[in-house]
Amino acid sequence: MGRLDGKVALITGAGSGMGRLATQMFVGEGARVVAADVNDRAVHETVAGLQGQAVAVVGDVTHDADVAVFVETAVGRFGKLDVLYNNAGIFDEADESVLTTTDAIWDRTMAINVKGLAFCCKHGIPELIKAGGGSVINIAS
Fold first, then answer.
1. Mean pLDDT over residues 20-32, rounded?
2. Per-residue model confidence (pLDDT) at position 35
3. Dihedrals φ, ψ of 73, to 5°?
4. CATH code at 8-138
5. What is the pLDDT of residue 103?
6. Domains in the chain: boundaries
7. Where are the beta strands (DSSP E) in the chain?
8. Do residues 111 and 89 touch, judged by C-beta distance below 8 A?
9. Residue 104 and residue 120: Cα distance in Å, rounded?
10. Could you give the CA distance from residue 54 to residue 73 in angstroms, rounded to a whole number?
11. 13 in Cβ contact with 23 (< 8 Å)
12. Predicted TM-score (pTM) of this structure
């Protein structure tokens, strides 16, 4: 029995890096996972081989309707949501200095890193409450 037996998690940014690793670790501990990412191929690679304990969902955290689908998938497929793991984020496009970062890069970075997290909380927290409580994990690096 794992520490997360019976739990359902939504993990954003699951197509690579920490999100992919979190998906694998959560499943390894007994959770069922909705793995969400904007990269179709990458998120399907993440869930491959996880014996149906994880499902891939493609969408963009900066689109409110996409995030609603992420949460609806968790509840529809697994019956509830216990863990919201907000991992989607970028910084690789930003210049090293705020003095030279363009408006377009700044706006995109804030949309993914802040607006995306807000949409995930907006849709996910009501389901955590319905499930009797849960965890919101916000990742920053």
1. 98
2. 99
3. -65, -45
4. 3.40.50.720
5. 87
6. 8-138
7. 8-12, 32-37, 54-58, 83-86, 135-138
8. no
9. 23
10. 11
11. no
12. 0.94
